[in-house]
Design a protein that fits this description.
Oligomer: single chain
Shape: elongated
Strand content: 5-15%
Radius of gyration: 33 Å
Structural class: alpha+beta
Order of helices and strands: HHHHHHHHHHHHHHHHEHEEHE
Length: about 475
């Protein structure tokens, strides 16, 4: 048996061929298991010949991960049968080694001392101070494999696994059991503290949402009664439809707003989720109550001031409710639903609806009123953008330069920004089409407040660098931060 040669062969194979997503079951784990198996075997008084069989089992026990994550023990045995004979191992020794490998399958089943030692060596980390370092790697691996999706699942997995685990050997029980119990206690304590922290965070978030909703609906009602309604001005979206119905038929505005938004609230249960629909319903009801019972003063009759500041306050109100995860205008719910059913974009659908609203306003109340109302809508839309996204809205920047290495270093270490690299080619200029070279195309995401600083940095390194920026828009996962949501 040539253990040193087989050790070099297997570790080299693992370093080369193991998938990179195996954060835990990698060559370092195998080396640790071999080390721990030797330590436990010496403590348990294992003879030299059995020691070689044990260490070979430890060395080969995870080689199956090269082929498959599932049932890797069987693949490990196939790997051992294929390669061990060329290093002087007999068929009987290979069979014993395969039995050792199979004993490590979870739940572990050890029938003799060597199997007990290997099983304890494989899970040696459970009873050490380095448990959480190893657990972090295992968590990352299980996330990569989509075996565990949420951190809460991982906490429960750890607790159940450790509570159901027992060390086999006397040495492991004496040296590792106490620390394993301490680790279990730490897991439970940290989980409890994290649960309390999330509960407090949820309470604060809930209170902040209530504050946003309250201030938002009061501000939106102020815009309507203090500016728009007294001057027969309109807005886009469902609010614009409500104002049109109110002005043409003289129905109560609070009732009209509630009834016109109701179909969109119901639709949002399918298009978004029940939480959004419930919050939006609460917002609309509160807006109606504000319109009915709060005696807002009429601020001005100046058409320009009405269109600008009416739109501003309406945008602030709508934006604040959106930050709370709801809305007081349901037009984008309709646009989102129609977008899923048609080939039109959300912006195109909203534009078409607003064209209809302002056309009716022009026909019923005159071109001038419609134009001022369009200014109101524009002001409200831009205000919503700033309230929802803030002045630090994110911008994607792409940089193509022959000095990309220096730029990458300074972006990360001076601006503190993460970067992504695309492999590409630069050149292909008019008159020199045949001249080109490989280059790294740098992409990073910054706030627009940092854009000038980034441009200066790049210009300092390479004045000829090609830099272009684009607004980062949310493409999936909700509509709460889309532009022109109003």
């Amino acid at each position: 048996m040539q253990f040193q040669k087989v050790y070099s062969f297997v570790t080299g194979k693992l370093e080369k061929d193991l998938p990179k997503y195996l954060a835990y079951h990698n060559v370092h784990h195998t080396k640790e298991v071999v080390q721990h198996a030797r330590y436990l075997a010496e403590k348990e008084g294992v003879p030299e010949e059995d020691m070689n069989i044990l260490l070979a089992g430890a060395l080969f026990h995870d080689t199956g991960f090269i082929e498959s994550y599932k049932d890797h023990e069987e693949y490990s045995c196939e790997f051992a049968r294929k390669h061990l004979p060329q290093f002087g191992y007999t068929q009987d020794q290979v069979a014993r080694i395969c039995a050792l490998i199979m004993s490590t399958r979870i739940p572990q089943q050890a029938t003799n001392l060597l199997e007990q030692i290997l099983c304890d060596a494989d899970l040696f980390y459970l009873g050490t101070e380095k448990y959480f370092d190893h657990a972090k790697l295992l968590y990352r691996e299980l996330r990569n494999m989509v075996i565990i999706k949420k951190y809460e699942e991982w906490v429960n997995f750890q607790v159940e696994f450790i509570e159901g685990h027992q060390f086999f050997t006397r040495t492991a029980r004496e040296e590792l059991q106490i620390r394993k119990e301490q680790n279990l206690h730490l897991i439970k304590t940290r989980a409890h503290e994290e649960k309390k922290r999330k509960h407090v965070h949820f309470d604060l978030t809930f209170l902040l949402d209530l504050l946003f909703i309250g201030v938002g609906v009061v501000t939106a009602a102020f815009a309507l009664k203090g500016f728009l309604v007294p001057n027969n001005f309109f807005d886009g979206g469902v609010t614009g439809i409500s104002l049109l119905i109110h002005e043409i038929y003289k129905f109560n505005l609070a009732t009209v707003i509630l009834l016109t938004n109701l179909p969109f609230i119901i639709l949002s249960m399918r298009a978004i989720n029940y939480s959004f629909a419930f919050k939006t319903f609460v917002c609309i009801v509160l807006l109606g109550l504000c319109l009915l019972y709060i005696p807002y003063p009429v601020i001005t009759s100046d058409k320009l001031l009405v269109s600008i500041f009416g739109g501003f306050f309406l945008g602030v109100g709508i934006g604040l409710t959106m930050r709370a995860g709801c809305a007081v205008d349901g037009i984008e719910v309709l646009a989102l639903y129609a977008w899923r059913k048609t080939s039109f974009t959300i912006s195109e659908i909203i534009l078409a609806l607003n064209i209809i609203i302002f056309s009716i306003a022009a026909f019923q109340f005159g071109i001038q009123t419609a134009l001022y109302s369009m200014l109101t809508y524009f002001t409200a839309s831009k205000t919503v953008d700033y309230v929802v996204e803030g002045i630090e809205a994110y911008t994607g920047v792409t940089i193509i330069s022959g000095k990309s290495e220096i730029i990458k270093y300074r972006l990360v270490n001076e601006l503190g920004r993460g970067i992504s690299i695309y492999k590409g080619e630069r050149g292909y200029l008019p008159g020199r089409f045949e001249v080109h070279e490989d280059c790294d195309i740098i992409f990073t995401v910054i706030t627009r407040l940092e854009l000038r600083k980034l441009r200066n940095l790049v210009s300092e390194i390479d004045p000829k660098a090609f830099v272009f920026a684009s607004i980062i828009k949310e493409t999936s996962g909700g509509i709460m931060k889309r532009r022109h949501i109003h």
